[in-house]
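Quick one:
INPUT:
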């Protein structure tokens, strides 16, 4: 099943059921454009013969970046570079989709001291984020137009689809969650109002790119925070998505405050519950609930590591596509064999410092450093210092943000 094609509702055919899910690459230079490193990285990922590659966050607003190394698509200046990136990712008939995103309050101080969000609720994490300003009606319309423009540029560049990022606490997720959306206008309050931004973006993107261009969506099953976006909220939103032309729904969960989607052993480094361990993939229980209310093709990312379990899940019809992220770094040379059933299991690499506040950045740093090595054409390295990994993330963000700030000042 893993190596069989899948036809999306829009008519596009993906050559197999394996997806390289989005991982932030942090490889763009000070001009926010794709570059030779991204091209080299995606050539290697395309060589795995994976059916679909989804890029890391490509931002629709250069003043709201998830990382100082993000690619930004808010105008057509980068069309040649975007085309080279797209060509690299589809050289073996692979699909390559741009994940389009706005970070909202999850924009670090290094990038923007005055970010905007649904409401003025600050993200308090290591002192890295400023208190956001609540968006005006014009701000919201600008965001919608930004997503549409980015999708159109992606299509012009030769990418084969887009994925709208509405999970992990980024801006659309901030509108969806009652914890971060305290508005009392048409964009806040009820789940119908809180999902209005998401639904409008999907509708307008679909209209702009046409009926035959794949439009995917990444959505949280829940925020895993008391008073936040719940599984019931998510199911309600998914029901509303049915008529909007979503081609592939990826289920994830968590935010920067509750990183259940990232750490190998679950939230806060604790072991995930036994039932989840038995099922291998983190969000399968919720995926089964989605199947009961929606016919949108379904993808789950997080935890898949054995060929037999992947085959069982696909044969049972529980999901249509299998998402993997970190195996495309540490197991990049085994992916092709995994697709064919020759490799039966993939490894997970957990990084721990013993310092609670640094665990997330240490793990992110390990994978981030190896992405850089792959992008430079170097071999993987497994013995980085965990503390050094943490420093890599923070120092890299600061350095790139300072370079961009200096160049911006020189222009003005």
């Amino acid at each position: 099943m893993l190596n069989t094609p899948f036809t999306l509702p829009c008519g596009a055919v993906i050559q197999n059921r394996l997806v390289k899910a989005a991982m932030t690459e942090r490889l763009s230079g000070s001009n926010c454009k794709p570059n030779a490193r991204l091209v080299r990285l995606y050539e290697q990922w395309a060589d795995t013969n994976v059916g679909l590659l989804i890029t890391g966050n490509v931002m629709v607003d250069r003043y709201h970046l998830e990382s100082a190394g993000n690619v930004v698509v808010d105008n057509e200046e980068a069309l040649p570079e975007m085309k080279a990136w797209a060509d690299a990712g589809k050289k073996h008939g692979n699909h390559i989709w741009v994940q389009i995103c706005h970070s909202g309050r999850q924009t670090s101080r290094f990038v923007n001291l005055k970010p905007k969000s649904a409401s003025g609720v600050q993200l308090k994490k290591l002192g890295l984020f400023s208190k956001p300003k609540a968006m005006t009606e014009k701000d919201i319309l600008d965001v919608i137009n930004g997503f549409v423009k980015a999708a159109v540029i992606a299509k012009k560049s030769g990418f084969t689809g887009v994925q709208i990022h509405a999970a992990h606490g980024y801006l659309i997720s901030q509108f969806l969650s009652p914890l971060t959306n305290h508005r009392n206008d048409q964009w806040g309050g009820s789940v119908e109002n809180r999902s209005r931004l998401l639904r409008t973006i999907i509708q307008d993107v679909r209209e702009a790119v046409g009926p035959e261009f794949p439009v995917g969506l990444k959505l949280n099953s829940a925020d895993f925070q008391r008073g936040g976006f719940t599984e019931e909220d998510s199911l309600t939103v998914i029901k509303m998505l049915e008529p909007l032309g979503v081609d592939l729904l990826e289920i994830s969960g968590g935010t920067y405050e509750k990183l259940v989607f990232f750490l190998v052993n679950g939230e806060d480094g604790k072991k995930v519950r036994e039932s989840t361990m038995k099922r291998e993939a983190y969000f399968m229980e919720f995926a089964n609930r989605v199947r009961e209310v929606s016919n949108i093709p379904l993808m789950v990312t997080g935890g898949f590591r054995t060929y037999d379990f992947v085959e069982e899940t696909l044969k049972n019809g529980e999901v249509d596509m299998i998402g993997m992220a970190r195996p495309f770094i540490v197991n990049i040379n085994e992916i092709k064999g995994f697709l064919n059933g020759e490799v039966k299991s993939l490894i997970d690499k957990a990084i721990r410092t013993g310092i609670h506040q640094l665990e997330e950045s240490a793990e992110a740093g390990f994978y981030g450093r190896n992405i850089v090595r792959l992008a430079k054409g170097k071999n993987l390295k497994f013995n980085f210092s965990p503390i050094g990994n943490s420093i890599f993330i923070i120092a890299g963000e600061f350095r790139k943000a300072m370079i961009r700030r200096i160049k911006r000042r020189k222009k003005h």
